[in-house]
Specification:
The chain has 170 residues and is of the alpha+beta class. Helices cover 19% and strands 34% of the residues. The two termini are 30 Å apart. Keywords: Hydrolase, Magnesium.
């Protein structure tokens, strides 16, 4: 997850975990992006919307990690070859669970229009993620800006880049 560092400048007392992450922003024909809703297990009273994705396995190409994470976190299958990008890259640091995470994150976009009856499910979540993700929803960047519940100030800018990359809403 990409929760921004909420510390007040003091060093985190949590063990540091560095990881390389692949994230994916599915975009539908209406220009909406599929996001997940969840929270830090240490702070369940402060939920937020965030992008799909997670750590790449050693030696795993980022585009393949993004497709794998998409399936694990939503139950939806996309081919790595259908991913566009990268559309954004960043390094972020934040506290989540037991760790102070430092993540090198690469974002990909994919056009995704769900077929009738196709829906998101959380059956592939890792044990640590179970109980910290409760739903998924399609958001326009403008609606999420207005709602004010994005994980970071940058998320809606990254969403716009994904929408532009796949021609969503056109």
């Amino acid at each position: 997850m990409e929760r921004p560092d909420a510390t007040t400048g003091a060093a985190s007392t949590r063990p540091v975990r560095e990881r390389t992450c692949a994230r994916v922003l599915p975009v539908n024909a209406a220009g909406e992006v599929l996001l997940l809703h969840g929270w830090d297990p240490v702070d369940p009273g402060s939920p937020y919307w965030f992008s799909i994705g997670g750590g790449a396995d050693p030696g795993e190409p980022l585009v393949e990690a993004a497709a794998r994470e998409m399936h694990e976190e939503t139950g939806l299958v996309v081919a790595a070859s259908d991913l566009v990008g990268p559309v954004h890259h960043e390094v972020v640091a934040f506290d989540w669970g037991l760790w102070h995470l430092v993540q090198d994150q690469t974002y990909f976009a994919v056009r995704l229009d769900l077929a009738p009856g196709e829906e998101v499910h959380f059956g592939g979540l890792e044990p640590l993620e179970v109980g910290t993700i409760d739903r998924a929803a399609w958001w326009t960047p403008e609606a999420l800006d207005e709602d004010g519940t994005a994980v970071s100030e940058d998320l809606t800018t990254i969403m716009r880049a994904a929408v532009d990359a796949v021609g969503g809403g056109r």
